[in-house]
């Protein structure tokens, strides 16, 4: 394979002399620029697939070189180096599409490894052209496996119906996507779709959150506050994790489903609302009914139409399609091209994926965020696939919490306003694992 030309930019001539001699000995054709203006002129020539540039040259910086190199859609591999790295320059280099960022001093063999990886990146296979077939059957759902075809059929039937729908499936299978597809393909598509995370609402606030409240209903209620039902009027309310609804509110929800009327907190008269209800659960509601934790009449009222969403392990033929979609999206957002080597692709298809599609997507996003442009090997991927899969493993994983992990958990909880379901999704763990970690943090704090 013919080795690509390299443009080497640094105002320190001793460095350019040493690097040029080393790379030339490896068979590379190297052109040197020791001044910023000369560097930009060379970059504009467009003859250099690989550009190795210092960040601080003169009035021209390596970031200027990077921007010039990327102008007009050109894609040379730009490797930036500096002895005075900072968060700002590193972030700008990453956002600008730099191939790699090296801290001085570096060993020549480390530089050679980056150059060879850039060479492999430049020789990457062209992106496969789309065959024109629409991968998305409903909304953002992807897959042609027999289990997913059955889901599509049920979505189509549910979209034509006015009845309540119960969507069952493990965490991360895409139950909200199913609910949105039903709404978007039905007669209520132009009206609001309002999702509710049942696990995120404190027990005392259910009535006011769902039905709203009127001015003066309680201390601090200085104005009427519409609830979810009013917000979704004419549209669809999606109750995610319906099994989390407290027992005292289940009767009120049942009455709304039966009568299509509700009473805001503090109101003296009921109100009517035309709203369709779709619910989802990852818990066995039938067992909860038998155990007295969920009202039997509410269960039957919700379970008019039922859609079982298969776990990812039961639709492995769809994994390659999902990987392509998530990888394309994450790579585009990060401004860098990454692909999986064949063995890494096989690992993805054979993994158990206890967190299902959500876990797969989060894994792909981490791969793109943590790796430089180029191929991802099986060895690089394996550590990212070691997520807890069983409850025993989760308990072991939550037993020891580093200070870094504590800060990360608290930061994400603050950003999500205390929404533990959303926080667990961002952290890439199951919700019950997050609860265990929080309990551990509370115990540790009490012991100090």
List keywords for this structure.
Helicase, Ruva Protein, domain 3, 16 strands, alpha/beta, five-stranded parallel sheet, 448 residues, Rossmann fold, 20 helices
Describe, in plain words, how this protein is organized in 3D:
It is a single chain. 46% of the residues lie in helices and 14% in strands. By secondary structure, it is α/β, with parallel strands linked by helices. The chain folds into four domains: 6-122, Response regulator (Rossmann fold, 3-Layer(aba) Sandwich); 139-310, 3-Layer(aba) Sandwich (Rossmann fold), CATH 3.40.50; 318-385, Helicase, Ruva Protein, domain 3, CATH 1.10.8; 391-446, Orthogonal Bundle (Arc Repressor Mutant, subunit A), CATH 1.10.10. The strands form five sheets. The chain has a five-stranded parallel beta sheet with strand order 2-1-3-4-5, sandwiched between helices. It has a five-stranded parallel beta sheet with strand order 9-10-13-8-14. A two-stranded antiparallel ribbon has the order 6-7. The longest helix is centred in the last third of the chain and has 16 residues, at 319-334. Mean pLDDT is 84; it is low at 128-134 and 387-400.
């Amino acid at each position: 394979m013919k080795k690509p030309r390299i443009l080497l930019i640094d105002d320190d001539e001793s460095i350019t002399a040493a690097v040029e001699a080393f790379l030339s000995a490896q068979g590379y054709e190297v052109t040197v620029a020791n001044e910023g203006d000369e560097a930009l002129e060379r970059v504009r020539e467009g003859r250099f697939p690989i550009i190795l540039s210092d960040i601080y040259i003169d009035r021209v910086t390596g970031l200027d070189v990077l921007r010039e190199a990327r102008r007009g859609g050109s894609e040379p591999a730009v490797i930036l180096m500096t002895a005075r790295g900072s968060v700002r320059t590193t972030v700008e280099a990453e956002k600008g599409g730099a191939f790699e960022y090296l801290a001085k001093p570096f060993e020549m063999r480390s530089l050679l490894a980056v150059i060879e990886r850039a060479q492999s990146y430049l020789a990457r296979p062209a992106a496969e052209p789309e065959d024109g077939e629409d991968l998305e059957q409903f909304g953002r759902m992807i897959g042609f496996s027999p289990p997913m075809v059955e889901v599509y059929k049920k979505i189509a039937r549910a979209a034509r119906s006015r009845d309540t729908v119960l969507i069952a499936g493990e965490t991360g299978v895409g139950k909200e996507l199913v609910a949105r597809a039903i709404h978007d393909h039905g007669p209520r598509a132009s009206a609001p779709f309002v999702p509710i995370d049942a696990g995120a609402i404190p027990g005392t606030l259910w009535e006011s959150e769902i039905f709203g409240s009127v001015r003066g209903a309680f201390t601090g209620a200085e104005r009427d506050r519409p609830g979810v039902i009013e917000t979704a009027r004419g549209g669809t309310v999606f109750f995610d994790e319906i099994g989390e609804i407290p027992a005292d509110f289940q009767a009120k929800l049942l009455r709304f489903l039966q009568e299509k009327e509700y009473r805001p907190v503090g109101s003296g008269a009921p109100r009517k609302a035309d709203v369709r209800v779709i619910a989802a659960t990852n818990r066995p509601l039938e067992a909860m009914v038998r155990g007295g934790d969920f009202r039997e009449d509410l269960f039957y009222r919700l379970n008019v139409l039922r859609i079982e969403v298969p776990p990812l392990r039961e639709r492995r033929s769809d994994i390659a399609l999902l990987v392509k979609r998530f990888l394309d999206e994450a790579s585009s957002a990060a401004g860098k091209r990454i692909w999986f080597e064949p063995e890494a692709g096989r690992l993805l298809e054979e993994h158990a994926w206890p967190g299902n599609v959500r876990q797969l997507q989060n894994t792909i996003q981490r791969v793109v965020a943590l790796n430089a442009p180029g191929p991802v090997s099986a060895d690089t991927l394996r550590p990212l696939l070691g997520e807890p899969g069983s409850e025993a493993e989760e308990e072991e994983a939550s037993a020891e919490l580093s200070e870094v992990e504590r800060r990360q958990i608290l930061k994400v909880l603050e950003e999500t306003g205390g929404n533990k379901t959303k926080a667990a999704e961002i952290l890439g763990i199951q919700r019950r694992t997050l609860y265990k970690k929080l309990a551990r943090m509370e115990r540790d704090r009490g012991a100090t």
